[in-house]
Amino acid sequence: MKTAITGGAGFIGGHLVEHLLAQGDEVSVLDNFSTGRIENLQGVLDHPRFHLTEGNILDKVAVENLVQGADRVFHLAAAVGVTLIVDHPLESLRTNIHGTEVVLDAALNSGASLLLASTSEIYGKNVSDSLDEESDRILGSALKSRWTYAAAKGIDEAFAYSYWHEFGLRVAIVRLFNTVGPRQTGRYGMVVPRLIKQALASEPLTVYGDGLQTRCFSFVGDIVPAITRISAEPSAYGNAFNLGGSYEISILSLAQRIVELLDSSSEIIFVPYEQAYAAGFEDMRRRVPNNSKSRALVGFDPKTTLDEIILSVADEQRRSTAPEPASRKVEVASN
Ligand code: UDP
């Protein structure tokens, strides 16, 4: 199978590339290396069935070249990470809305099927015990940049549904809930790699707010096979599927568990949100997925425990503290 991936040098993208190559796919990646990193592809750069192009999803010709001849497309490219979105809302809006439209058009014109990566952020401040795909979205003020990501991804989904309904584009959507694992960087906010890095360096673990906000972390090694199976299911077209962890934990408890498990001498400190992000920043207090729909479709049943996740991320961080720069075999899109 010929598979094209936008954002394939991202944290999830790199794991997806490895998974698809192991399945026998021919894999082509387009990434502009804004948040993507060549290190995420280090193990596959010389693989004979792997092709990498450096370019932007706003560049129609680059996207058309990527998608041409592909059987399916995974659209992972996005401006992600709360820090990035708060600091650069315009870039996030342009990439996440216009970029997605470019990818949808290219898939439609080439006849490829499409898997769109969406996010649990779209549920916003809905603190339900069990967010299912029909749950309401509760977003804060349109004047707050934090919500622009959720707004943009909601529009992406609306575009995808419309392409399915009006043009018959075979497109499925996955909503990812706090996917974590080795090679994720904490640079753009993500809490698990950040706290683990702090614990390994014996620095204070920075817990934002009161630390009682909760999340359900899922392991990239559980998510990637599920995404792949959903992409191969015709009954998934025109539909969205939650993919998240099943264990809810507060950020304070997460920090405590990391310190304990890694036997760290770090203390835990509380950092006010306005100091961590910006004045008026609003967090989500809780985000708990209902995975029934993805379980029914592809048997999604995340097995990796939080302790296993923490240990695998810590192990990878220890090994990559002084990374060798990877040799780059990258084509640069000429447009
Ligand atoms: N967070 C934290 N310390 C950090 C980074 C993040 O306490 O150093 C908090 C953040 O405010 C949020 C939670 O951890 O409540 C998850 O943050 P992340 O950015 O990983 O994901 P998201 O907010 O998108 O769920």
Automatic annotation (TrEMBL):
InterPro entries to which the protein is assigned, alphabetical: NAD(P)-bd_dom, NAD(P)-bd_dom_sf, UXS-like
Broad class of the protein's primary localization: Golgi
Keyword Lyase: yes
Matching Gene3D superfamilies: NAD(P)-binding Rossmann-like Domain
Membrane topology: Single-pass type II membrane protein
UniProt entry keywords in alphabetical sequence: Decarboxylase, Golgi apparatus, Lyase, Membrane, NAD, Signal-anchor, Transmembrane, Transmembrane helix
A molecular function GO annotation: UDP-glucuronate decarboxylase activity
Pathway: Nucleotide-sugar biosynthesis; UDP-alpha-D-xylose biosynthesis; UDP-alpha-D-xylose from UDP-alpha-D-glucuronate: step 1/1
GO BP term, pick one: D-xylose metabolic process
Gene Ontology cellular component list: cytoplasm
A Pfam entry, by short name: GDP_Man_Dehyd
Domain NAD(P)-binding: residue ranges: 5-310
Named cofactor requirement(s): NAD(+)
Subcellular location: Golgi apparatus, Golgi stack membrane
Record EC number: 4.1.1.35
Family recorded in the similarity comment: Belongs to the NAD(P)-dependent epimerase/dehydratase family. UDP-glucuronic acid decarboxylase subfamily.
UniProt-recorded name of the protein: UDP-glucuronate decarboxylase
